[in-house]
């Protein structure tokens, strides 16, 4: 109850602040949420999970990741899952690809949208994908060019936009630099990830100001709720004009390189918050609960969302 009361008290000041009328929520549960879970979810259950999410009203559900099974065992069935899910009209099903090999696998199953990921931290880039930021962008550029040649949409991610487990605080201007390069490559949208959840409303404000040269309708935010600050950070971003938020049903997920638990902000918490503030999301809360109950039951875990 204290978490609920604490959140509600923080929301009061936003009752009189201009915020977007609508917010698009990108559901990350099937990919970012599941990829580091120790319990391997069977392919048929992943398909059911995604199909349940498809009935919730999301416009985008990140479905899987075409990465090496050796490094990410949970995603070893990417092709099978993508082929078997029901593709609902007007819902996009992006997949994460780290390289051209991953893209080639995605193309074989007729993927329509991919995501590429970089970092604003040199140390994190080395730990996560074993190369520098510069080299990672060159690698992604090859992926983007081939994707464009095949009519594929590309979304970009920037990790560690507020802090890195190895470098500490990150200069917002570095985030702007990487973001600019992703847009120049051809990404239609760039999602800004607070990978280890060290962001604060003040840091979020500073980041928004450093990115003021960009069209905020082409930016998204992706906050982890390590210190229960994801919602305040999201609200600061919305106040500055952001209209797209990444989240994960029941708070699934976290970064294996972050050095501490750092789960994604729960989709239910985001939806409840936005509904409370009169912001439209298009999400059916009852169907969202059904999807959440299903996946939490498989993983033997509690839903960490805040309901009010």
TrEMBL record:
Reaction catalysis annotation: (3S)-3-hydroxy-3-methylglutaryl-CoA = acetoacetate + acetyl-CoA
Positions of the Pyruvate carboxyltransferase domain: 23-289
Top EC class of this enzyme: lyase
Domain of life the protein comes from: Eukaryota
Keyword Glycoprotein: no
UniProt keyword terms in alphabetical order: Lyase, Metal-binding
Pfam families per UniProt: HMGL-like (PF00682)
EC number: 4.1.3.4
Transmembrane segments: none
PROSITE patterns: PYR_CT (PS50991)
Keyword Transferase belongs to the record: no
GO biological process: ketone body biosynthetic process; L-leucine catabolic process
InterPro entries found in the cross-reference section: HMGL (IPR043594), PYR_CT (IPR000891)
GO molecular function: hydroxymethylglutaryl-CoA lyase activity; metal ion binding
Signal peptide: none
Pathway of action: Metabolic intermediate metabolism; (S)-3-hydroxy-3-methylglutaryl-CoA degradation; acetoacetate from (S)-3-hydroxy-3-methylglutaryl-CoA: step 1/1
Entry-linked NCBIfam families: PRK05692.1
Name of the protein in its database record: hydroxymethylglutaryl-CoA lyase
Lineage of source species: Eukaryota, Sar, Alveolata, Ciliophora, Intramacronucleata
């Amino acid at each position: 109850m204290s978490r609920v009361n604490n959140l509600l008290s923080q929301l009061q000041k936003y009752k009189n602040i201009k915020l977007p009328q609508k917010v698009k929520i990108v559901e990350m549960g099937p990919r970012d949420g599941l990829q580091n879970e120790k319990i391997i979810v069977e392919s048929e259950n992943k398909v059911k999970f995604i199909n349940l999410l498809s009935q919730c009203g999301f416009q985008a559900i990140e479905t899987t990741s075409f990465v090496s099974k050796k490094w990410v065992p949970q995603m070893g069935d990417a092709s099978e899952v993508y082929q078997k899910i029901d593709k609902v009209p007007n819902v996009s099903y992006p997949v994460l690809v780290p390289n051209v090999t991953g893209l080639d696998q995605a193309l074989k199953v007729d993927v329509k949208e991919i995501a590429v990921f970089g970092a604003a931290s040199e140390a994190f880039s080395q730990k996560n994908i074993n190369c520098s930021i510069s080299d990672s962008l060159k690698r992604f550029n090859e992926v983007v060019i081939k994707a464009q040649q095949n009519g594929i949409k590309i979304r970009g991610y920037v990790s560690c936009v507020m802090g890195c487990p190895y470098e500490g605080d990150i200069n917002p201007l570095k985030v702007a630099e990487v973001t600019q390069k992703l847009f120049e490559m051809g990404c239609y949208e760039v999602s800004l990830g607070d990978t280890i959840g060290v962001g604060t409303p003040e840091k979020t404000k500073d980041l928004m100001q450093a990115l003021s040269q960009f069209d905020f309708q082409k930016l998204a935010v992706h906050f982890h709720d390590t210190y229960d600050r994801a919602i305040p950070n999201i609200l600061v971003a919305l106040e500055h004009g952001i209209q797209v938020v990444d989240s994960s049903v029941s708070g699934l997920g976290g970064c294996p390189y972050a050095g501490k638990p750092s789960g994604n902000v729960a989709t239910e918490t985001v939806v409840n918050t936005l509904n409370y503030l009169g912001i439209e999301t298009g999400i059916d809360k009852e169907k969202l609960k059904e999807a959440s109950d299903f996946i939490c039951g498989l993983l033997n875990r509690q839903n960490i969302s805040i309901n009010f």
